[in-house]
Amino acid sequence: MPTLEVRRDDAERRYELLEDRAVVGFIDFTRDGERVTLVHTEVLEPLRRRGYAAKLVKYALDDLGARGLLVVPKCPFVAHYIESHPEYAGLVT
Known about the structure:
The chain is of the alpha+beta class. It has helices spanning 52-66, 76-84, and strands at residues 4-9, 14-19, 22-32, 35-43, 70-73.
């Protein structure tokens, strides 16, 4: 079973999903004050359909919510995730 880790990398302006310490997915973001735009989500092709992108988005939304920031879901995957998980609707600006 692979070891999964999700982290925020402020220097690269992205959230990263690591499998056995190798980056296998990410969400690019930009920040303008209290607003964070989630721009693009990507998971390596061979690892898609394992729920990795959803794990990444959940981590990002939980992190942003805990930090009191608002989300602009520019990425279609993130927007769909929020629509499917109404508990995150309050984060959207």
